[in-house]
Amino acid sequence: MMTKPFSQACENNKKPILTILSEVFANTNHVLEIGSGTGQHAVYFSQHLPNITWQTSDLLINHPGINLWLDEVDNNNVRRPIEIDLANSTVISNTWKQLSAKQTIDALYTANTLHIISWSLVVKFFESISQNLSLNSHVCIYGPFNYQGNFTSESNANFDLWLKSRDVNSGIRNIEDILALAESAGLKLIEDHTMPANNRLLTFIKHS
Ligand SMILES: C[S@@+](CC[C@H](N)C(=O)[O-])C[C@H]1O[C@@H](n2cnc3c(N)ncnc32)[C@H](O)[C@@H]1O
């Protein structure tokens, strides 16, 4: 039998992230999460934001683990995972179409994904926001970033080395590059929040 996956990082960061999501998603109805991972964030945020429908997504390989977490909750505002693979443009556009046929997705959330995927997929991530997310939607992106090409801590520098040792295309992104892509996707930065453990939470609104 499969063991339920567990991320200690999610346990550590979920409360400070929730504090900000509660404000940013105050008028939000339907959130799409990209790269739900274990599913812990989805479970916790949906429990604490009961007026929001939380749609989980990830590569198919992570669906069984997310489902084990969802099996244990009785709130009905968190949705079973759908497949979103940023490497597969057809899957993304079909998935957005299917989702949008049911409800308007008015927010997007992702944590610790942009340093895992390659830069070309980071570009696709913002392209899919540009093409599919409706005006005035909010976007929240959590993770570590570099500023003016510099790591913000020694632990982030070591983390980047570790990331690149397992996948040369991964790595901590420069905030300036992320903000440039976000702007071209029609996103306006609301705030760049300082978070524990040298992470950031970027909040945006789609204005065009
Ligand atoms: C470090 S985990 C973060 C998981 C979770 N959001 C968290 O904060 O713990 C990175 C996530 O990105 C997902 N991922 C990797 N490649 C992807 C791709 N091509 N498209 C969509 N998600 C991808 C992984 O499956 C994984 O869930």
Structure description:
There is one protein chain. The longest helix is centred in the N-terminal third of the chain and has 17 residues, at about 10-25. The strands form two sheets. Strands 3-2-1-4-5-9-8 form a seven-stranded mixed sheet, sandwiched between helices. Strands 6-7 form a two-stranded parallel ribbon. The chain has helices at about 10-25, 40-50, 65-70, 90-100, 120-130, 155-165, 175-185; strands spanning about 30-35, 55-60, 80-85, 105-110, 140-145, 145, 175, 185-195, 200-205. The protein has about 210 residues and is an alpha/beta fold. Helix 6 (about 155-165) links the parallel strand 6 and strand 7 (about 175). The chain has a single domain (about 10-205), classed as Vaccinia Virus protein VP39 (Rossmann fold). It is globular and about 45 Å long. The protein starts with 7 loop residues before the first helix and ends with a strand.
Index terms:
41% helix; binds S-adenosylmethionine; two-stranded parallel sheet; 7 helices; 208 residues; alpha/beta; seven-stranded mixed sheet; single chain; 9 strands; Rossmann fold
Q: What structural class do helix, strand and pairing data support? A: alpha/beta
CATH class category name: Alpha Beta
Q: How many DSSP H or I helices?
A: 7
What is the H-and-E element order?
Answer: HEHEHEHEHEEHEHEE
Spatial order of strands in the largest sheet? 3-2-1-4-5-9-8
Residue share in β-strands: 15-25%
What can be said about the biggest beta sheet?
7 strands, mixed
Q: What is the C-alpha radius of gyration, as a whole number of Å? A: 16 Å
- CATH H-level name... which superfamily? Vaccinia Virus protein VP39
- Any idea how many domains? 1
Ligands, ions, cofactors: S-adenosylmethionine
Which word captures the global form? globular
- Specify the helix fraction band: 40-55%
**Spans with pLDDT under 50 lasting ≥5 residues?**
none
Q: Compute the separation of the termini in Å.
A: 47 Å
| CATH architecture tag | 3-Layer(aba) Sandwich
User: What is the averaged pLDDT score?
Assistant: 96
Give the CATH topology. Answer: Rossmann fold
Number of strands: 9
